[in-house]
Each structure stands twice: as structure tokens, then as C-alpha cells.
């Protein structure tokens, strides 16, 4: 069976593993206050061109989302999110378990707009009984989204502007950020994201690391005491240096972007094959996730050799699946899949 | 200014006040374990024709909702609700603040159907990554709904059946239950509700009491240790007998239903006047809440003397408002309003 | 049976009831934004000689405690309290249910000192792994305490000073404040308390009202959005005016203090009788609660006619009980008890 | 600087790293449902001689503690713990942040007894106002404790018996379990622990793994839906196989016990040196943690080359420190330290 069902089927990139092995018996202090973490922090600050950023490393995405959101919000405040957002549908109510409502907005291709945020804000404050409603205080977006789409610089600027005008925090979930930043349609970079968002993270788990998400905080109010939150929410790794070592390996020489580009190119090969075969897409996505609609018999045939992520039934004879490439996907497996799609 | 904006503008029915004054200097033990509460419990058990019911008295609706829901659900479980449901929009995230997601279903006229519940349940268990989603475990409905509509016996039976088949608790918010049970369209009674629901409450705050909601629990799992939850969530009234005294006054001789019927009749008078004047309704409701669409100039004129609850802008020249009658509404004020609507 | 077991056995003072009846059919807006509440707020601001105070009315003490504490603290912050404090032992973990640790300090006669607070603060910040501990951010005291003792002005000033120096909020639970302020040993008044504390409440439930606690907030950070918290925690009374009306009746002409003094005087009569009979006290308390140690046979005899609150077994032949007087206690019943103690 | 301050200064045992490298590019499904995890589960079930055990792998100790406790308790229930217990003092209120009170019992050398648990249970149920208190429902112990002491089989049997009689869950935090089970004073084994506890974990982070705790659940009620809890609390590792691979390497051939024994032996060498030098111990501990009281000048001298964990000031000229050995500690470093202690 060849797995195209997600982007975390393998371990870590060989250079990451090498670095972990090389530093394995070094003695360091714990909890992310070691030298490796500090070096990785500086690499990230350099890439974002902002020395004042706080960088904290967490193990996983749900953990990062719940910790950031719970740290930012007061008890009666909620977070605006696309209804398809990871926090709204795939985290077993982790945000709610910290006491906060996820206020879902209807997404278009996984994205929400500045206008929707402005409207939600105004609806709240113009309501006579506003104290009887959750107060919106943060906007959560993912980039790429759960549907593989990405925000343009103009869209992110518009979101950032409404958030700053209205006193909302802007938070970008970058679990797949590498695949977004190296998409051929992308016009964002880390510097712009660090400027436009109040907090975001650079995802490692799905982009070459064994695990790890680098949370980057620019808003001063969100920096305060953030490490207490990491500890309380169970996210403070004893051997924190494991995270620093991995992000250093991924980011100091551009490996992160190189392997992301690789995944996007292979995804494009699969996408082209689908187009050539006449299979439409559930959503047009320019990153490593392909949402294609296949005839059921074709799907059944492919599933003998390949694992995909089932999405939904489209009509009586068609289903949508997600096909994922990643930093670890081989050209050979993609070529074989392309042949079988076209075959 | 004459208030028609809600059904809690006045204090309590005179017979309730009399009883409170009469028992005022009696010494009783606290926390709802006194004789008055016990008598009121027995009256309610009698009306429901079920001696095994647990009855606990709480002060208000949001408190009752959050206490019941938090008592019923485990950390990773959520409650299905109409998107217009009180817990979803008017309680400042009280349910989420206890750690639970409100899973909103699109309502029709404030109601949700057995089919929607079945679909939500099946979507969850048929999902490959079901553990990554909140597990639906309770269905919350309000009767009458926030839009003044009511569930028929057939609808409630269908909901009850799917809940029992699927292991979900069925919870009815009866903040305005009196107005529902005395609606001319109603075919439910307390006995049927107690049988079909696992827990519900008989609202006092909006139907003749100073305050108070009588929570009636039939499901054994929900009875266990429920009083710990009342205390923890801040709802255990020191002088609990105040609740017992009021519900006894309201329920022992049918006063509750009599004053509810009064409100419904007056609402019908207003509704007829609106119809006669050609004003359409946002929703057809057979209880004490009237959702009428008025021309803006007419609304402006009426607002000089009357207070309504603004709902929404309908088009450039029309707005929807809620007009409420209650146990306390006088025929004189309604007649005056009818004249002014028609005038 | 004559009840001396607590100070909430009866309803409300007759003047409070009169006022509730008198205003019963007035139409007001809800949720504490009516005129009666506004007038009561102004009375309280006047008594505290501070027009900038926020005053919000809640129904009960546990509700007030959890709402204030949850509003003040961030997720990783905790509240310092006497180990005998109400929030630590008698509220079913209400504070913890909002996510916050109660950090218990060993109390002397129900009280904690400025030195203990300073020590707890320093222990935390001087700890190398401080982020692994709950951050102390609020000090909770009750006055009178659960043991009937009171804080002197000097003690409160010392607590206030350490709190302000260390950035901690000082919160006084005044569920029995009337009995404290009219104790013959007291040297505090509302003005001093409002200056020295960041938030406190004037208890009504135990001092002449049917129910109600007037939360008085002086610290600007605690005022912000406090009403959202009241609603979310289930404490926003629909007919909020019931609270305003009661506090107006109690406070505008000094009734609150008059009836508190009455209870203290009667308590002193009982205390004298105990002394005369040679019964020692578990703790010396100058307010309406008497903690006396009785021989078991004497206790058994008294319990045939009187209800007390059992405290603890002291030795093989003695037990401690709490005897409470209140605004509602009659001289006749006290005289009878005194005779029976001495008899 | 040579680190003796904790037992997580290095990465993982070389055999663990080898296995991680060897399996690195294998494709597996995520979230701990892969073959490696299944094999590790079976190894653990074999060691515990119970095929019915649920085994789930979590990343860290705080995460394991909060997830297990939150999964086990209802909202109004609390967990009994030694006052020195990790959950009570070193987890930033993680348990409270899930809504539950940690009910602290005074520990003797880090341990609590069956008598204390029985007493706490009886105090609660015999209290007239038990519903106003947190209901004790779980007992948390750590073995070894935070002070390096261990429970004997007789002590654990007594705790288990009272828990079963009183309907309490018994939970053992085994973050350092290897060091406990290989202590020369130990008479427990995994089979006994699995029988006597309802849930426990085998700590990997401090005993040879990069990270990881294997939670072993025997009580049926605690197994139900436990994976929802892992996900909700942020503990579900995408590449779950990393945990399975490590525990397989550690446990399938006894490596875990071998390296634990190594650490205990080296600790004994240090302990002997301290005894010989006349330095007393804060607590007698038979595992890898040594709590020794040193003269301040000696400590200052040692700290030039060694890092210890400062515990507390003992008197004007003495301080207590914790010296830790681990699986990774070298004989050379210990010999050098021994020489310097004696020198």
C-alpha cells in the first residue's frame, strides 16, 4: 500500500534525524531554554526580520491552537473561524474545553474574508444585549487552509487591518505553512506574515520534522506569561531541545522551503494527471493537498494500491478524496500514481 | 412607556407575592431541602404523573441550561442545538465555559427535527477520525422556541425516539413552557414531556414567578449527584424555599396555566390586529411572542409609546420587531396597542 | 424546633418585603439596568464615598465568588485563600471549575496575614521553575471570616499594601459584612474597605434580604466587561430590579447596620451565658457566629429544642457547635436559649 | 558543567535512536494506530500479564496526568494527592484548568497512606453539607515520589483496597517507574501494579526515551472513549508511531530495567559518598534522586563544576539540593563527583 492519505506518514527528513543523533548525548537544560532552541529562535527571528518576536516551540497543532487561543482570550471572549477550520471540526472541541466558543463563519474554499470579520464584529457591538453574546476577540485562519487554498497578501492585509481597527487578534495556523509559502500562487513571506499577524506558527510535523510547531508571537499582550500557558496546557516538552534542533536543521539553510517545493511539484503532477483524465476538483488548491472527484469504480481500483483520505460522496457514482504529497513523497510513487490515474 | 419588549418586565403574580409574604418569617432549613420545596416537588410529580422524577429548583434559565448540560456531558461530548437556540446565541458562551461545544444545526422557525439529529449522529460515528470530533451526546430544544413556535407531540416523539435509539439525552428548555402548553396549537402536556424528555424545566421567571425554573429529571444517570452540580455552578439558593413557595403557588391550583392562557389570548388580539393592518410576520408563532414586520414609519410612531424588542432590518423600509405579552399584560394596554396598530 | 444553625432560616426583613410588594407591578427593563438598581448603586457609592465604583448585584455568595475570581484571573493564575476560606471548602470546587487553583494558606482563626501573602508571592517568583507553578494573582479574604472573626483596619491596610506592591488583587467576601461592621471590635467602614480592596461585596442574603450580594469594584481592570462574566456564569437575574429594590431598602436609611447590630447583641447574650456556664470557645468571635464547646450531654439536651450547626468532635465527651443569630432572631428565643444554657 | 540537576538532560538511549532511524521512512497511519504502537502495547500487556489492558502513549507527564484525571472525574469530583505531589505543585494548575480540585493530603516523605484516603473519604460523606464540598473520586500517587521514595507492595495493596471499597480510582504516576522498580528496596512489579491500580503509566521521558509515557488502563470505565480525551487535551501525536517504536525498544528486551538499575547504582555511589562525608539527607530515598543537605561553602564549591537542583534553605549555613542520576549518567562523572564530595 502506498500512502497518499496525509502528510505525516513518515518520520523526519534525514538531515533532521542526523542532527538529532549528533546532539543526542549533549547535556542541556530542559523546557526549551537550551542553546539549540535559542539558536532556532534566532534563525526564525532572522527570517521574519524582527528581533522582538517571541518564539516558543510546541509539539503539535491542536496543542498549539488551544494554547494560543486560551492564552489570548478572556473567559467571555470567542474566536472567529471558518466553519471548515481545524479548530471548529477536527480537534474534539479542544478550544471549547478551555472555555471558549468557536464562532464559525461560512467559509469559501476554506477561507474567510475581512468583510465577514467586520460584519461579525459590528453585529456584536450593535446588539442591544451584547453582554448576552460571546465577545469576538480573535480571528483564526489557517494558511494553507484545510482545503489546501492559500491567502493572498492582499487578503491577509485586509484581515490584518480590520483586526487592528477592531481590536481583534489575528492568528494564523501554519501547520502546512511551508507548502503555502512555496506554492506558485503565493505572494506572502515570513516577514509579511509576522507583520500582519499577531501570532502564527511554522508547522514542522507535516513539513520534515518528527513533530513540532514554532509559535511566533509579535503582539506584546500575547507574549506575557505565555510559557505558563504552555506548561498548564500540557505542552511543555521536558527535552525541549528536540524542537530547537529540528527547527534549526529545517530553517537555517532553507531545507524547509526546498522540501515544501518538492511536495508542491509532485502535487502538481498528480493534479495535471487528474485534469488530463477529466476528473474535476472539489476545490482548486495550489498546494500539496489535492481534492479530486473520482468515479467510484476508478476510486475502488486505485484503492487497491493507494491510500487516500475519503472526503465525501458527491453523487451516486462519484466521491471526493484528498490526495496528499509531502516532503517525503517519492517521484517514483507519484509517477506510478499518475500512470494509474491515466491508465 | 408601555413595555411589550419581553415577558419579564414586572415582578410576580399577586398570589405568588402573597404566599412569599405569608411564609416570610417561617424558619426552614436551606438549599431547597425544606417542606415548601418538597410540596412543590410533589405537585410537579403529580402533574407529570411520575413519582420517580427528581425535581430541583434553579433561579434562572442560563443557569439551568449550563448546569443541566455540564452535568450530563463528559468533557469530549457536545450538545446539538438549533442555531437560533438560546444556548447558542444568548448566553455569552455559558455552555462553552463549562467546556462543551454547542453543535449548531440549521433551524426551521426555531426548531430542529429528528432527521437532523439522526444525521448529525451518523455523520459522527461514520467518520473515520471520529475521535477528532466532538461526540454528540445531548439534544437541546426549547419549547416554545426563541421564535415562539412549538413542537407537536409527533415531533417530540420522533426526537425522543432517535435520542433513545442513539443514546442521546433529550433536554427541553421550558423557560416559556406555560405559553407553549396553553397555545391553541399545542397537543403536549407535562406528562408527555416528562415521558419523552430525559430532563426539562418548567419556567417560572417568565410565567408569574419573581424568578425560578423547576428542573425535572427522569433519566437516572442525570439524577445522580445533580445537587453537587447546582452548588458548583453557583445555582444553589441559600433560601431555597423561595423557589418552592413560588412553584407551589403557581402549580397547585392551575394558576400557571391560567395566566399563560391569558397572555396567549392577548397575543392573539395583537396578531389579529397586525393581520388586519396587513403586516406580515417574520415567523408564524402561536404563543405569547409575535414577530411582526412593520413599516419603519409605523414602527417609529409606535415606539413613542411602546417598547418592543428590535429583531432585524427586513428591507430598506421595513423592520421586524418582537412584541411580547405575558401573565402581567393588561387588556387595557393591549386594546390601546391594537387601536394604535390599526389606527 | 428553634433554628440557630445559620443566618438564612427566614425570608427577608419586613421593610424589604414591603418594598418588593410596592414595586411589584412596575414595569422596568431587565438585567439590573433599571432605575431601582441605579438608585441602589448610588446609595452604595455614597456610603463608600467614591462615585467611580462599579456596583453589580448578584444572587448568592458562591456565584459572586466564582464570578469575581474568574473575571480577575488569567488561566494560569490562582487565588490565595485561608485554608478555612469558603471558596476552599464549601463551594464544591466552584473556583476550580472555572479553571483556577485555590492556593490555601494556613489560617489563624480564619484569617491570613500580609506576611503570609508576601511569603507566598516571593516563594513563587524566586522559584527557578516558576512557570511550572500557578501564579498567585489575587488574595481572597472573608470579613467576617467563616469563624466569625474580623480583620482590623491595620490588618487590612497591611494586606492591601502587600497586594498593591506585588500586583495582586485584594478581594473581600462580605457575605456577613453587616455583622462585621457593627461588631464592637470593628474599626473598619465601607469607605475604608472600598479604598483598601480592589473588589468586595456587601452581603444581603444573610443580612435582611431574600437574597443578593452587592459586588463593589474599584480596580479599573476588574470593571471591564464584568457584566459579560455575570451572564456567562449564570448570575444575571432577568428581573434584576429585585436586587436593586432590596439593597435600596436595606442601605438607604441604615436598616442594614441596625439589624446587624441587633444580631450581634443577641449573640453577645448567648456568648455571656456560655461563659457564665463555663463553656469554652473554639474561637473567640465578636460577631453573630458563636463557636462554643459543649459537653455532649448538654448538647443532646439542647438539641431537643434547638438546631445548631455541628462543627467537630473536640474530645471524648465534648463537641463544638456553631450557634448563629441573625437580623431575624427574636429576643424571646435568645432569652429562652440563655436560660436553657444556664439551666 | 556536568549536569546532575535532573534526569532529562540528554536525548535517548542509543538503541532507541537506532530504532527511530531504522523505521524513519516507513509509512504508517497516524495517531498511534500503527503496527509499532500495537507491538509495544502487546509487550506491555505481556509484562503486566493482562491482555485486557488498554495502553495509550502520550508525550509527557503533565499531559498524561491531566488527561487521565480529566477523563476519570465528573465536574464536581476531585483527586486526592500528596501535598508534595507533582499535580499539586509543579504543573501550573493543569488539573485545575480542567475544572477539578486537587485535594492535598499532608505527605510523609512524598507518600500518602490508605488511612489518609479512608479518612478523607469518610470526612466527606459524613459531612451534613457534603454537596457543598468537592467529592473525592480518585487517588493520585507517584512511584517513585517526587522525593525519590517508593511505595511497598503492602502500602499499595492497602491503598488499592480502600479505593476499591470506597469507589475511588487509584492512579499511579510512573514518570520514574523504572527507577522505582529496580530499587533495591522495591517489592513491586508491573503485574502487581496493573492489578492494584486502575490506571498508571510507565515513564519513558526520564528513562531512556526522547519522550513518552505509556498509560496503562485496567478499569473498564476509564477505557471508554479515552482517545477522545487524548485528542481534546492536545496529546494525540500525529506520528504516534514514534512512541510505539521507543517503548518497543525499551521494553521488549529489558533495556528499560537495565538502564534504570544503572542509574540507581550510580545514585547509591553518590549517596555513600555523602554519608561518608557526613552530609545528612533531607529524605532517605532508594532511587535515582538524592536529597542531600550540604554546607553552603561546600555547595558553592561543587556548583563551579556541577549543576544540581536547589531544594531549600535548611538553616543559616546549610542548603538541601537534589542530585539526580539517570540512564545516561556516566560512571566517570559520578566518580569525579564522589571524589569532589569526599575531597
From TrEMBL, chains A, B, C, D:
Alphabetic keyword roster: Pyridoxal phosphate
Domain Aromatic amino acid beta-eliminating lyase/threonine aldolase per the UniProt entry, residue ranges: 15-294
Pfam families: Beta_elim_lyase
Taxonomic lineage: Bacteria, Bacillati, Bacillota, Clostridia, Lachnospirales
Organism: Faecalicatena faecalis
Cofactor requirements of the protein: pyridoxal 5'-phosphate
Protein's UniProt name: Low specificity L-threonine aldolase
